[in-house]
Amino acid sequence: MAIAKAERLMNLALCLLGTRRPLSKRELRESIEAYLEAGSDDSFNRMFERDKDDLRELGLVIETVENLDGEVGYLARRDSNRLAPITLDAEEAAALGLAAKVWQQARLAGAASGALQKLRAAGMPEDVDPYEPHGALEPRIPVHEAAFEPLMLACRDRRPVVFDYRKATAARPEPRHVEPWALECWRGHWYLAGWDRDRGAERVFRLSRITGKVRSRSGRFTAEIPDVVTVRETVASWAGETADRSASIRLRTDAGYPLRAKATSVRELGDGWDELEIPYGHGLDAWLVEFGPDVVVVEPAELRADVVDRLRAVAKG
Question: Which alpha helices (H) appear in the chain, and where do they start and end?
Fold first, then answer.
């Protein structure tokens, strides 16, 4: 049905753009096969009005003209629907070229390459190599998770989804019913922000913890999408990036390099252990659990208790 509607909209747009005079509803109905197949005049009128509104929402300027006999006609003048020429300097071309190189997956690589070709045709000089000034830069955004593509399409199409999700402290995944808002990459990992229907609140999910297939669900979103979705800020707060305190931990020698990178001080204890002072913020307990037996929390006491509780939950399964 979506393909049929897209084809109908395309045909209507071509008719309105290709005519030199306003076309009446009757003429448009006779020119487009989908309109001829409409069961009744009322059905056609409803379909045509929806299509006309959809095209206008997409940006097509459609004029309504009434002739001397009082008959209403429609057309889309080409000069009213023509974009201004695109001109790019060398630096802008380089930035676009680098952006096109970021995506390496097949679906996104094709779209990026096609967009770059259209920009060249629209004004980017052919003799300017957008990669030459920055040849040493090789931007990459890796996407290894199978959930990325269906979630990307669900965010675009505003479709609710269901997937099985395993929290860092859980031994088994649980089903989550989510209205997806946005995907963002942070520190080499992809995250989905959306509305968790089961919990009735905004949640952020790490794609690497999604197991099985992402299944689409019918129906509309039930929660309002915020104007700004702060995926990175939310994840950063969970990872202790907004820490206002410090914690003391013991860490095995030659282990836990991400923790060492955050440490404000490191002291060798001997016997294969070091003592580190690291920033302490919301979510640090979940992060420390990921290092297993290589980390022991010294203080504060509440952080130690939280880590122990999480380890016990994992052990119980």
Answer: 2-18, 25-31, 33-36, 41-57, 90-102, 106-122, 148-157, 231-238, 257-262, 284-289, 301-316
